[in-house]
Amino acid sequence: MRETVHQPPTSVRSNRSANRRVALPGGQGNKPMTVSGSSVSNPLPIALSVRPRADFVETTAIRDLTSRALAYLQAGFPVHFRGPAGTGKTTLALHVAGQLGRPVMLIVGDEDFSTSDLIGGQTGYRYRKTVDRFVHSVLKYEEDATQQWVDNRLTTACREGFTLVYDEFTRSRAEANNVLLAILEERLLVLPSMNHKNGYIKVHPEFRAIFTSNPQEYAGVHEAQDALSDRLVTMDVDYYGRETEIAITAARSNLPAEHVVKIVDIVRDFRTSAEFDQAPTLRACIMIARMTAAQGFLPSAREPKFVSLCLDVLESKTAFTNQSRDRRAQQRRMLFNLIEHHCGSVEPLQATLPPDLVRSEAG
């Protein structure tokens, strides 16, 4: 009797279940019995189903940027949103991806990425053992093992026609992103393993790609290779205008617009001053506004909690070192002036502050 047993692959990354098919003995006689098992193919990486955010604000500027990006994508060109931190590139990329109506595969760039982290690789083994007892006095074993290919997110997106959102792709090294060149130009994914039965995958016609990146001078950002940049339609995303920042901050904080205006103006004037090491962004506006709404106080120069909140969020934009002590004191005086200017005060601001803040400002 010959008995064939297939063992599922041993892999920490695989949660495969086995479909077991058994042919039972056919009644009378010593008929051979075969027991076989086959492993179900690896589960696909989970794709996102992107829906419109309830608090997404679509002003004229955002609507124009979105419509232009969609036009490029629908024509088959990959889009690249480039700009400083805090300008909403990732949110915009996911919003645009949602308009395409396809599942979204999200990848976030990383210094340690290799090509296999994008497309997959040989992971685990599948074992097959054959026990031959056809001659009762002879026992024969045959055993072999084959490596299993496991798709990663980029391969799944190419194969299934999903929308790829590669966030901060320049945080990955250039050599890891080389596989994208043939995907975006020849619409062909070249798999690195010669042992893979399909060394090439034709990219699905509905596959689309959206990239985001920060400026090159940011820490941990690599320069994108020219060959890849040349294949992308790059759209620069800068800080939004005042009205757009007010609308977004109000939507994300549930604070009345008349109060949001004061907060946004403080942050924008601080950004214009250049008295910082890291530019205050729209996120600073949202933090201050959301905490103001949650704590239930007004954005007023006479409200110590609000003044402390502004200092906590905005003073952190300057490095804390012994050499910067004088600069930080100057920055604090400027923030006091901005708060007093935009939020009003009947009496001098220092008279409304807690003693620790007054001492800190003086020293």
- The CATH class of the largest domain, by name, is Alpha Beta
What is the helix tally?
Answer: 12
Please tell me the overall pLDDT.
80
Q: Assembly type of the shown chains?
A: single chain
**Structure class:** alpha/beta
| Percent in helix | 25-40%
Topology as H/E string? EEEHEHEHEEHEHEEEHEHHHHHH
- Unreliable stretches: 1-41
What is the overall shape?
elongated
The number of distinct structural domains comes to 3
- Say how many strands there are: 12
Assigned CATH architecture of the largest domain: 3-Layer(aba) Sandwich
Give me the Rg, rounded: 30 Å
Strand order across the largest sheet: 5-8-11-4-12
- Determine the strand fraction and express it as a percent band: 15-25%
User: Could you name the CATH homologous superfamily of the largest domain?
Assistant: P-loop containing nucleotide triphosphate hydrolases
Q: What fold name goes in the CATH topology slot of the largest domain? A: Rossmann fold
Brief sketch in words of this structure:
This protein is α/β, with parallel strands linked by helices and 363 residues long.
